[in-house]
Amino acid sequence: MRLEPVADPGLGRTLGFPAAALGATLAFAMALALAAGADPLAVLGLMIKGAAGSKFALLETLNRATPLIFTGLAVAVAFRAKLWNIGAEAQLYAGAIVTVLLGTGALGLPWPLLLPVSALFAALAGALVLLGPATLKLRFGVDEVVTTLLFNFIMLLFVSYLLEGPMKDPAGMGWPKSQKLIAEARLPRIMEGLRLHWGFLLALVAALGVWVVQTRTTLGYEMRAVGLNPEAARFAGLPVGRIMIKTALLSGGLAALAGWSEVAGLKGSLTLDLSPGFGYTGIIVAMLALLNPLGVVVSALFVAGVFVGADSMSRAIGVPTYIADALMAAALLFMVLALLLSRVRVRRG
Known about the structure:
Elements: E1 2-5, H1 10-35, H2 40-52, H3 55-80, H4 88-103, H5 111-140, H6 144-164, H7 199-216, H8 218-228, H9 230-235, H10 240-267, H11 278-288, H12 293-317, H13 322-343, E2 344-347
Antiparallel strand pairs: 1-2
Helix pairs in contact: 1-2, 1-13, 2-3, 2-12, 3-7, 3-10, 3-11, 3-12, 4-5, 4-6, 4-10, 4-11, 5-6, 5-10, 7-8, 7-12, 8-10, 11-12, 11-13, 12-13
């Protein structure tokens, strides 16, 4: 048995295998429900109701989708150029740290500048976090999968140190959390009395902006060219190293905005459990979207709906919420296999 590349996959092959992957994921979800002793259709219905069956449920799904859009975009941008950024979690926390440093009013910035300046410097912090692994890859050939993954653990330990030391809230009754942001540094709610904040709309703008960059600019063309064949791009005269650095800066900045939006828009302070794995889930979001920036929005809404719906379903019938984690893992595996089969043909002998 051997794999042969398909020169022209065609629309049917390109879309058919991912669609089959989604179908396989749904079948796997039903099998999980059966294994848990529940009615699969009832589980599915409760998950849909819990994710979008009411105004509150829908807004919670949109809130959960906001950081996933940013981390999904970060992964999509990097993977498109074959820069394997597995460290969106570290970049997210870097953005959150800077958001707290600027948003507590310690630097005395005038209130009209607090939000834009904190967003800018948060993105810069995330960009610098990814710049290190990208430079190591270009200069010394160090595998960025390893370095970006390790940065996640290093950043979490650093955040733990900050919350137990320099950034610990003296009024926090001993809990490891930072001081709360002042009101001027918080993202306003889209509607008064609701938890949904303007970070969601900014995430949509970011998705549109990344799509424009990838499809309408020279940088987007260069990123695709490097991702398809870096040696051919280098032979054609493209500055591959410079393009990879630009890709790293953009990807890290987008991931950091997830931390900024969570702190400034929802939580108001930094805690060690700020992210329940948004950086890792962003990989699933990007892969389900086939690395398309606009598809990332749809994918993030789907993934967020699964997690929010699973929480509601678990409370209703007692099925463990871990079904959502297993479902997302299966979705990623099925989608990776689908992407492979859409580009190669299996031959016997």
